[in-house]
Amino acid sequence: MVSPPTGARTSPVQSHCPQATAPGAETGPRRSGPRLGAGKVANRPAPPVASGGVTVSPSDEGAYADRWRHTGAGAGSAVGDLATVARWVREASAVTVLTGAGISTDSGIPDFRGPQGLWTRNPGAQRISDIRAYVTDPQVRRQAWRGRREHPAWSATPNAAHRALVELERSGRLRALVTQNIDELHQRAGSDRALVLELHGTLFMVTCLSCADRTPMAEALDRVAGGEEDPGCLRCGGLLKSATVSFGQSLDPAVLAAAGAAAADCDLLLVVGTSLTVQPAAGLVDVAVRAGIPVVIVNAEPTPYDEVAAALLRDPIGVALPALVAGLSERR
User: Fold this and answer.
1) Catalytic site residue 200?
2) What global pTM score does this model have?
3) Which residue is catalytic, options 16, 151, 162, 200?
4) Are 25 and 132 contained in the same domain?
5) Among positive and negative, which fits the CA dihedral 19, 20, 24, 25?
6) How far apart are CA 91 and CA 106, in angstroms?
7) Cis-peptide, bond into residue 280, ω within 30° of zero
8) Which backbone phi and psi does 293 adopt, to 5 degrees?
9) pLDDT tens for residues 65-124?
10) How many CB atoms lie within 10 A of CB 30?
11) Which of 70, 82, 109, 282 is the most buried (most CB within 10 A)?
12) What is the CATH number of the domain that holds 331?
């Protein structure tokens, strides 16, 4: 389990932000300031963020989200305004950002669980993202390869929200950019690859499930275009798959550990365009809350973590992020 590091920073914006405490979190000295919901805490067990061997489970996240939605989650949350949150960003020295599919919808890449999401419109499509189905069903693999050829990421370009995070980095405030996305739009927008932590991998590489050989996706797609419906590994003959994390696969322990450290060691956790229903990525919010870090959620739809957020922004992401970084000066 990722725990806040000893000597984790004390956020300079905490004196201006509402605070929330995760269930079971240790309480200690905190800077003075109003507390979220007059001391309300989320009445659910905090899912752990582990340092290795963690798998993503669609059944767990679905039940978790449905149960939490019916409790009226978010009733104690503060719906924030852009000006206030922009001030918190200006006053921060280190901001960790967690992004999900919602940040890329303005680039023409649909999200998964939104009103027009891929899995909302076609729940059966989620089967392609299940490693068990992928390994055992050749038809699923053939469908997956066709989908990879047609994926909008190949023609998508970064939007205003991606560029806003580049500006945040240029101001010297970006601690880490943790993303659940596989489209590499953050990197194409100009974000430093060393600061981008891809929790769920990348569409632009292929890995062999047998020998772990990695090759460019473009090479595999050339083979598909040439008539191979389910291309195998040229080194060992094993099954090839995009270098992304499917349901049932483990996340890279090093990437997850780095993400947990970034969530605990920052002044502000900015969560953008994610439903926060997939673990362990969503558990990064718990890590931040336990460390006393204010959390801001920028998302059109409610999330299971709204009640522990210092502020909620429902503005369009392409409007909100540029507003939050407008006029940032370099910190010295």
Assistant:
1) yes
2) 0.78
3) 200
4) no
5) negative
6) 28
7) yes
8) -90, 130
9) 332 333 333 334 556 789 999 999 999 999 999 999 999 999 999 866 656 555 455 556
10) 14
11) 282
12) 3.40.50.1220
